[in-house]
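[job 0417] fold request received: D-alanine--D-alanyl carrier protein ligase
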Amino acid sequence: MQNIIEQIDQVAKTYPDRICYDYLGSTHTYQELKTKSDALSNYLKQTLPKEGPVIVYGGQKFDVLVTFLAVVKAGHAYIPVDVNSSLDRLKVIAEIAKPAACLALETLPEIDLDLLVMEQAALKAQMNNTKAVADVSTYVSNQDIFYIIFTSGTTGQPKGVQISHDNLLSFITWMNQTFPKAFSQTSLSQAPYSFDLSVMDLYPTLVNGGKLAVLPKDVTANFKDLFSWLPQLKLNTWVSTPSFADICLINPDFNAQKLPDLNYFLFCGEELTHATAQKLKTRFPSAKIYNTYGPTEATVAVTQVEITQDILDAYPRLPIGICKDDAQIVLLDDDGKDVALGQTGEIVIVGGGVSKGYLNNPLKTRQTFLTYQGRPAYKTGDLGRFDAKGQLLYAGRKDFQIKLHGYRIELEDVDQCLSRVSFVNKAAAVPKYDQNHKVSQLIAYVKAENHHFTSNFQLTQAIKQELKAVMMPYMMPNRFVYVDELPLTPNGKVNRKLLLKEVNGDA
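[job 0417] inference complete; emitting structure tokens
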């Protein structure tokens, strides 16, 4: 099958003047993307050592995308590091990755990375060498590593997930087959490039000759700017976390009348709640809404399901769908044995887009990557079960399970129940530990909405009354904390770790 970069090059040859990138009205064509990435790739081949990945430091500007493609055309993998990353994170990534260079599209912080650093001015000058022609023979291909995304890491030490050209090709092929019309027009590009959700809009759009409409962080962080820009983007396809959609749903103008071209919603990165999906279905009755699932280690996503009204009526907690054709999902118990149909087990992804492992981290790779019936596989740490219709049902994280008074409770299950309460906009449950590190209380952080109560006590009693209909008594939170907003990670997910720290201190 054709190389991914050659597919993007072909769009430039066929439709050179087509817009590929729209950054708040500043537009760039496919010809510009090809010409600039060809030129920079030639320079990189002459300047860089032949081995080693390359850090690309920057935000969501066009030159960052150019640099990604240039690095891959020069035969290297790129490591996206967002401009909002901390100094410590940048330094740790450099220490782990041992990169050939750091290409800085923004001003680097005052830090000694002990490696070759190419600054913005020099890189932009090389991009403007319009006579350069790329050497297709050096393009990353087959099992070569295409990009490396560093996850947060549960212990604070990030892990570099290596995604090969063929891993990415598997994902793009599945996206094209599953959503054949979604990425040939205008796609929302909101997630930072250091978050693998960005890959869901980036490469499917580029290989299909579509346009990426960028919403940078400084716009999404400003409510007024966000809703000023959204209608101007004329989006056809929406890609984001559910949390970002929840932010947009606060505004009643986030609807089909104001955004008439919006036909597809694709969600990944965290669980899509029933409440969020139902609101979207009401606001955008003609749009198709898809729930997808997959970890970074299996290349963005491996399952999908369209959230129709029938699905909403049948499932209080939404399914995460059916696996793509070139992969397989198996559910294993603690002994590594397949569980019976309907039973809960750890979700293990086999084949397809499964990574070769973590960069320069053989210990962590051995712990979570394995071979299953001769194919590469990844133990996700997520729990799930299959229903009679073959839908995969997410049952939370193994590490988000707690025991309270002898009962095993899944924190995300509590979140789901809370999200079904009419007075709750968004919620997250966290445990409080005693001095023996046993769970003593379950605390719910709640962003409330649509209520007339004059005290938090009255609001709490009303929420508990509704919860009685959807959750077991032992799951009922002991305490409710009301907040204006739940904290989010840089990737737009609810920051449960921060809430845990607030409840339990640094212990």
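[job 0417] notes: The chain has four domains: 1-164, 179-315, 326-396, 405-504. Residues 1-164 form a domain with the Rossmann fold fold (CATH 3.40.50.12780).
[job 0417] exit 0
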